[in-house]
Amino acid sequence: MTVFTASLFIVSGEAKANFNVHVKSTNPVVGAKAFDLNLATLTPQEKKLVDKYNSVIDDHLNYNFSITRTVRILVNHYPQHVNQILIAAYQHYPTRIPVINRAVIQVEPALTSDVLTTTHLVAPQAFDETIAQAIDVEPSYIDDIVTTATRLAPEKLNTIVRVAIVSEPRMSETVVKSAAESSPDNFLDAVVSSIKEIPQITKHAFVAVKDFFNFNNAEQKTRPKPEQWNRFIVEAKAQGINREELEWFKEHGYLTEQQIAKVYNNKADK
């Protein structure tokens, strides 16, 4: 009988008749806890599963398995319970939530959305770092990561775009496109915010904004507010975009000559 199989017997039948009783881990985290977990939204059934996996993790740690190895084993065997496995692991090592999340994404990239959802639900303080970890592990999933993160926390769009671009600058255009499709009313401000903080991505972001509107269906044209466009023009000029490069936006009705002239108001700006 393997250690893993033995640990499963521990949580079965009468040995775990009362799932609400959680045996204190023999490997508690050392030092102050980095995150306070919010478990109020869990259903009774979810809490039972969390308690079950807490006991399984206890058993594995007693055999000197690392928390990351334990999580990988559990997720590999029970991907349908990834949320509960993660929460149990968080309870054991609340200072290592991003590391735990990274372990799950490494073993099963398809569960990245579940990892983001669980972190946002019970440990929102670790959400930003988890986005960066997810992109670092699986940059090919950056579209899904940005889309999922924006759906979970639309109020953090600026941060999501910035973290994503910093994590994978070469995929700035994909980040902008995903943000635009996920939050068409607010993505332009997120782009401007990112350009201010990361000037070197200006050209990529500018092309991405143009591409988004170029392929946007005429009947479904997203029209940011004039003040959003004004901020975009100001930051574009500040980062070296010349007036001629804005002509496309004017020709397609997104900008007016007056808006452009207000910022590019002398010959040197042409």
Summary tags:
single chain, 270 residues, mainly alpha, 61% helix
Indicate the structural class.
Answer: mainly alpha
Give the integer mean of the pLDDT values. 83
Which parts are unreliable, with pLDDT below 50 for 5 consecutive residues or more?
1-34
Which overall shape is indicated by the principal axes computed on the Cα atoms?
A: elongated
Radius of gyration: 24 Å
Topology as a string of helices (H) and strands (E): HHHHHHHHHHHHHHH
What count of helical segments does DSSP give?
15
Distance between the termini: 76 Å
Report the sheet with the most strands, covering strand number, pairing sense and barrel closure: none
Helix content: 55-70%
Q: How much beta, percentage-wise? A: under 5%
Number of strands: 0
